[in-house]
């Protein structure tokens, strides 16, 4: 929308203080996308409202507001159509995730009072919106993350992308010639199964909760991105223990995460996790302690070029 920065930098909630885009546009855009209004353009408010079964009054108010940001524009014929600043697919995905984050941050007072978040497992559309946005981020993050992993385990041939979600990291490993298995919850793997890119790249999909089942194989690398910060201490130790049995001799676990105390973005992300899952931006010391408890010996951290990303590498004790 008239700005050359990548979609994540422009539209995400996870940007430095002072760089956040207009929350009013984010929520209005998300509402219009949610009811199918934008997909139904061009049209005038009465006809759009009738076609979609919406309130004509509300459709007019929302379209007039979106025209303020040039997301839509009003033609001489009285019909609204997409405007010069209408977001493309990547920006739309990040914006919709941002809207969910605003609603999530609206629950922080409840977290302060104590009850844990309800979570989004029962909301498949919400999971799809999150994964579409994280795919945008993943496409930008994957090359450097995979470089770092292959620097650490240069001879790696078979990698498990654990909690792979959208599959952008799996795709990048496949581009480098590795055999790739991607595990996630059944509902997410069902979505991944619809993606021709993953099938064409030969990514093998494995459906199942990783606390209950894991692939019957060993791996030179278990890459686990965006998972550890959604969990608390006990679950992370359990996860690291379970993963250890999957690693072949000389293999390594690579945890891709945000480390507390390294970047204001990691500090702000902890609020997102507080609202969404009860997780946290855990510190390097937490990772070291949990990995040691889970039977790992050599533990190293590496900062990645994209803020606030880190890799924590760990090798099991022989
Ligand atoms: C925040 S997303 C991260 C996706 C991707 N790895 C990334 O970094 O962009 C977390 C992913 O982990 C998956 N996940 C979380 N808990 C899981 C579990 N117990 N078993 C399998 N997958 C799980 C979620 O379904 C989701 O796809």
Describe the structure.
- There is one protein chain.
- With 318 residues, the protein is an alpha/beta fold.
- It has 2 domains: 7-105, Arc Repressor Mutant, subunit A; 142-316, Rossmann fold (3-Layer(aba) Sandwich), CATH 3.40.50.
- The chain has 13 helices and 9 strands.
- The protein has helices at residues 7-11, 23-34, 45-52, 56-68, 89-105, 108-113, 124-152, 168-175, 186-193, 196-200, 233-244, 264-276, 284-293, and strands at residues 72-74, 80-82, 158-162, 179-184, 204-207, 219-225, 247-258, 296-303, 309-316.
- It has a 7-stranded mixed sheet, sandwiched between helices.
- Strand 3 (158-162), helix 8 and strand 4 (179-184) form a beta-alpha-beta unit.
- Helix 3 packs across helix 4 (56-68), helix 7 (124-152) packs parallel to helix 8 (168-175) and helix 11 packs across helix 13.
- The radius of gyration is 21 Å and the shape is elongated.
- The relative contact order is 0.10.
- The structure holds S-adenosylmethionine (SAM).
In short:
With 318 residues, this protein is of the alpha/beta class.
Please give a handful of descriptors for the protein shown.
about 45% helix, binds S-adenosylmethionine, about 325 residues, Rossmann fold, Arc Repressor Mutant, subunit A
